[in-house]
Design goal:
The chain is of the alpha+beta class and 1004 residues long. Among the domains are: 336-422 and 623-641; 651-755, Sandwich (Immunoglobulin-like); 760-869, no CATH class; 878-1004, Histidine kinase-like ATPase, C-terminal domain (Heat Shock Protein 90), CATH 3.30.565. It has a five-stranded mixed sheet with strand order 30-31-32-33-34, with no helix packed on it. The two termini are 80 Å apart.
Length: 1004
């Protein structure tokens, strides 16, 4: 159980913000709810009621102690090993310190902070009463034979008296008056027990027990006994009467509520009295039982009644009903209501005409009727028509016009004057224009006009362009004439014997029957229709419907209160529209409006039917109350005194259910609840302790760490979650009462879901470590495989290059030893032949050219043989070979070559050295043949495990299109040689600004 922190603040605000019942109403006019044994609410009688500071109601019954939140009851059981003396609970008391005192049939216990304390001094006794006085002493009365016992308990000290028999069998009633006197009710009298010496005062002629005490409005002590009520003044008791209709009564518990009304529990029902007026409420009226045990007023002002068959609650309402229960002579069949200028209210009904004034009734009838309790007087007016009185009108002369089936006329100074011919008549509505003409909408005859002199004229509905009839009418004080609203819809203005303006649904008016017309203070016209509330000004109509915020479209009538707010009677309840919202909507008909709805929980008798059809259905009395026709009588609303609950409800989290198994919540309200691993389904039960109308309490909750936003639960008192990840959580719940006042502190529950072993940190860390190790091992294996593969590829490439070099050496040898020797022989033979031919012979010149070509070819073959097999590379290594080749190339081509070769590169493997040397040869050759370079730079360096060769020239460069296709055969061969060594090949060239070739290979 978790108490809301805000509850303490609420307790301090009781005096100013708590609700209260309107004491002037009868019990039957309050909102009544009942919970019975038959419904399974309890197994036995509710004998005692209290409310603890956390907001719960506690009910002592024949079969145990119940905790009630307004919706659910929970049978309370003490912790294991701390049993109650008995489950038959006779009395309960919530002390100011939060302790719950429980009086059973076999002793007294106190429940506080999770501990049950039993008082041996009262063991075995029925605890009839428990009471806390002004200095926080607990008084407990235990019955006994031959003597009852009264114990005073303060802190840990217990003092008991009564063993001398002066308390008889025990104390039944206890009360502390406003002067601090403690009074005890016993057999045949009362004791003034504290302060000072106890004094006994007998009740003359009485042998019964004084069961309870109260005070009257003058501060005098009232006593309840089995023979009724007594008042104790100046040391003497005298009978106190509530009226012959109430007595005799067997009075039990008394309750003086916070507004001064006195409630009396009897064995014939519930008695309620205020300022001399008493009324009863019995099982025939809906009370759970006539035998009343307990009375209690909660912190919100509701009255709780415990009976042998269950529990009843009475609370205030915004709208109350005047029916035959309140002595109405019209048997609850009110057809029309009209305010009288002098403060009274006129009501028409099937019985006739009634005038209500200050709670008393004057009945006007055709003949005398049997006396009715609430009727102050009857008036038998000469000529008064028999039967139902329908529509009413109060004219400017103070006369009351009425219509019945047989007559139309008016009542003036208790005298009835008939006008016109005899009926039959069905008059729906009446109005008086500015000239004193009285207009009546008669269903068949048409529109009747009665002149001030009594002349009657009729205009048929067909002459007004209608095949139906008018159902509503109002006078136009500004323009004259009257406005009519019709059964099939539409309105029209009638003046000077003809129809003027007309508005229907196509012109913006609400469709369907017009049931009421009313002019606003600014001269605009309100029209209540089946499809909205229409506003008409300057011939233009706009209609307020559900699209603009109305709860439903069907509007029966409209009226304004003293503040200018509009009240509508609709099919779904009574609706209030604030004047500011109304004016904003009139200015912009597209905007929404805020509508406050009053329904059956506020006392409104809902009906989807249009009122009976006799206008007016509603009237405002001179004191500002709104009277209107209800289902079973006339209903009254006071806009200045609407029932409103300003107390935020305490909020509690009652239970957490994990996988359908309930878990006890910590008693301190602060500890965390630990849930087991792999919890799948989670249910959290919560409640709000506002008892005015628990069904209208609203909730929202949030699970911090899981829900992003607050969840709107409406009236649901449970939250559900599935498969929550293991972690710590905080559940928060807020609630509002029936008036929409929120407790923004709410209640909090901290809980955690334990992880399974495979969800723990150490398991995840270990699993991560194992996975990381496996990944690292796989990476190492893969790396070794790649390195092995690279070494194999490199070795293969080197073997291939070596094989290629061997092949070049073989070809160079064959060229040198074979082809060159043969060419040398041929050259020598040509020289020998040339010497034999005369010098001026053409053949000699030809042979001379042939010999020169053979010599050049031999030179070229010698260079080719040298290139295929550079001896310097084999003898001195790559740096020397590169430098030597650069010098040789520069000398042969005439192009200056700047060469820088790092000696440490000489340790490079033979295959890689041969490949780089071939790249140098190819790059220099390309620079000379294709780039037309005038200067070339060659650099061979070693750093960070790599060898880099760069060859840069200042020639013509290559265009981008040629680079994009890979270049010529020389570039392709250089790129392939670099790739075979697992190296990179890069060429940068800008047309007209030269080229740079860069090769980088791993050092081996």
């Amino acid at each position: 159980m978790r108490a809301s922190i805000a509850f303490v603040v609420c307790l301090l605000a009781w005096g100013s913000n708590a609700l209260a019942l309107n004491p002037a109403l009868d019990v039957a006019q309050y909102a009544h709810a009942t919970w019975t044994v038959r419904d399974g609410f309890t197994k036995g009688a509710v004998k005692s009621i209290t409310q603890t500071p956390d907001g719960y109601l506690w009910l002592g019954t024949d079969y145990g102690l119940l905790r009630f939140d307004g919706v659910r009851t929970v049978e309370w059981h003490p912790p294991a090993g701390q049993p109650l003396p008995s489950t038959d609970i006779w009395s309960v008391l919530a002390a100011r310190d939060g302790a719950l005192w429980i009086g059973t049939a076999k002793g007294l216990v106190r429940w506080q902070a999770g501990q049950l304390t039993q008082y041996d001094e009262l063991t075995g006794r029925v605890i009839w009463r428990i009471f806390q006085d002004h200095d926080n002493t607990i008084w407990a009365s235990g019955s006994g034979v031959p003597a009852g016992r009264l114990c005073a308990i303060r802190d840990r000290e217990v003092r008991c008296e009564g063993d001398d028999g002066r308390l008889g069998y025990g104390v039944i009633g206890m009360r502390e008056d406003r002067e601090g006197n403690l009074w005890l009710g016993v057999s045949a009298g009362i004791w003034r027990w504290r302060p000072g010496t106890p004094a006994f005062f007998p009740i003359p002629g009485a042998t019964d027990i004084t069961q309870d005490f109260a005070e009257d409005r003058d501060g005098q002590l009232l006593l309840s006994t089995t023979r009724g009520l007594w008042r104790f003044m100046a040391g003497r008791a005298e009978a106190y009467s509530l009226g012959s209709a109430i007595e005799p009564m067997d009075a039990g518990q008394l309750l003086r509520d916070r507004d001064g009304a006195l409630w009396v529990a009897t064995k014939r029902g519930l008695v309620h009295t205020y300022e001399g007026h008493a009324d009863t409420f019995t099982q025939a009226d809906g009370l759970s039982s006539n035998i009343v045990w307990a009375l209690f007023e909660d912190r919100e002002g509701s009255i709780w009644v415990g009976t042998t068959n269950g529990l009843d609650r009475f609370r205030d309402v915004s709208v109350w009903t005047l029916s035959d229960k309140q002595g109405s002579p019209n048997r609850g069949e009110v057809f029309s209501v009209r305010a009288a200028p002098d403060g009274g209210m006129w009501l028409s009904s099937r019985a006739g005409l009634d005038r209500w004034e200050n709670g008393r009734v004057t009945a006007y009838r055709a003949q005398a009727q049997p006396a009715v309790a609430n009727v102050a007087r009857q008036v038998v007016a000469q000529g008064f028509p028999r039967g139902t009185v329908g529509a009413l009108l109060a004219d400017q002369r103070g006369r009351i016009w009425m219509a019945t089936a047989t007559s139309i006329g008016y009542l003036e100074r208790d005298r009835y004057v008939a006008v016109g011919t005899a009926g039959p008549y069905v008059v729906r509505s009446m109005a008086e224009d500015t000239r004193g003409n009285v207009w009546m909408a008669e269903q068949t005859a048409g529109l009747l006009q009665i002149a001030p002199g009594g002349q009657v004229a009729a205009t048929r509905w067909s002459a007004l362009g209608h095949d139906d009839f008018a159902t509503a009418m109002t006078a136009d004080r500004a323009r004259g004439g009257v406005w009519l609203g019709f059964w099939n819809g539409g309105i029209g203005h009638f003046q000077g014997g003809e129809r003027r303006d007309r508005l229907t649904a196509p012109q913006g008016l609400g469709a369907g029957r017009v049931s009421h017309l009313r002019f606003d203070a600014d001269g605009s016209l309100w029209v209540a229709t089946e499809h909205g509330l229409s506003h008409v000004r300057d011939g233009h109509a706009t209609t307020l419907t559900t699209r603009n915020g109305l709860p439903c479209d069907t509007v029966h009538w409209v009226i304004d209160d003293d503040t200018g707010s509009l009240w509508l009677n609709t099919a779904c309840g009574l609706v209030r529209l604030e004047r500011g919202d109304v004016e904003a909507w009139i200015a912009d008909p597209r905007r929404a409006i805020n509508a406050a709805v009053f329904d059956s929980s506020d006392g409104v008798r809902l009906t989807n039917l249009n009122p009976n059809g006799y206008d007016p259905f509603v009237a405002r009395s001179p004191n500002g109350q709104i009277w209107f026709v209800g289902v079973d009588g006339v209903q009254v609303l006071d806009p200045r005194h609407l029932a409103s609950n300003a107390i935020p409800p305490p909020v509690h989290i009652e239970q957490i259910v994990a996988d359908h198994k309930g878990t006890d919540l910590p008693a301190d309200g602060r500890s965390r609840v630990d849930l087991p691993a792999l919890t799948r389904d989670l249910q959290i039960d919560y409640t709000a302790l506002s008892f005015v109308e628990p069904g209208r309490n609203r909730f929202r909750y949030k699970l911090e760490g899981y829900d992003r936003d607050w969840q709107d639960a409406g009236g649901r008192r449970q939250a559900f979650y599935t498969n929550l990840p293991p972690r710590d959580y905080r559940f928060r719940v807020l609630a509002s009462n029936n008036s929409g006042v929120w407790n923004d502190t709410g209640a909090v529950l901290d809980f955690s879901v334990a992880p399974a072993y495979y969800q723990t940190t150490w398991f995840l860390a270990l699993s991560g470590g194992v996975i990381a190790t496996l990944v690292w091992a796989a990476h190492r294996v893969r790396l070794r495989m790649v390195e092995t593969h690279q070494r194999e590829i490199t070795a293969l490439n080197e073997r291939m290059m070596k094989a290629q070099e061997q092949e070049r050496i073989r070809i160079a040898g064959e060229l040198h030893d074979g082809v060159m020797q043969e060419m040398l022989a041929v050259t020598m033979m040509v020289g020998s032949v040339k010497r034999r031919i005369p010098g001026d012979s053409d053949a000699r010149a030809t042979l001379d050219k042939m010999q020169q070509k053979l010599i050049q070819a031999g030179t070229d073959l010698r260079q080719l043989s040298h290139d295929l097999h550079p001896p310097l590379l084999q003898e001195a290594g790559l740096p020397k070979a590169v430098q030597g080749y650069c010098e040789q190339f520069s000398s042969a081509s005439g192009i200056p070559v700047e060469c820088h070769a790092d000696d440490s590169v000489g340790e490079l493997s033979r295959g890689a050295a041969l490949a780089l040397f071939r790249i140098v040869q190819e790059a220099l050759g390309n620079a000379a043949k294709h780039a037309q370079a005038s200067r070339i730079t060659v650099r061979l360096t070693r750093a960070d495990g790599t060898v880099t060769l760069s060859v840069a020239d200042d020639g013509t460069g290559l265009d981008r299109s040629r680079l994009a296709t890979g270049g010529g055969l020389g570039l392709v061969m250089m790129r392939e040689r670099a790739s075979q060594l697992n190296g990179t090949f890069d060429i940068k060239s800008v047309p007209g600004r030269g080229s740079t070739i860069r090769v980088t290979i791993p050092f081996r």
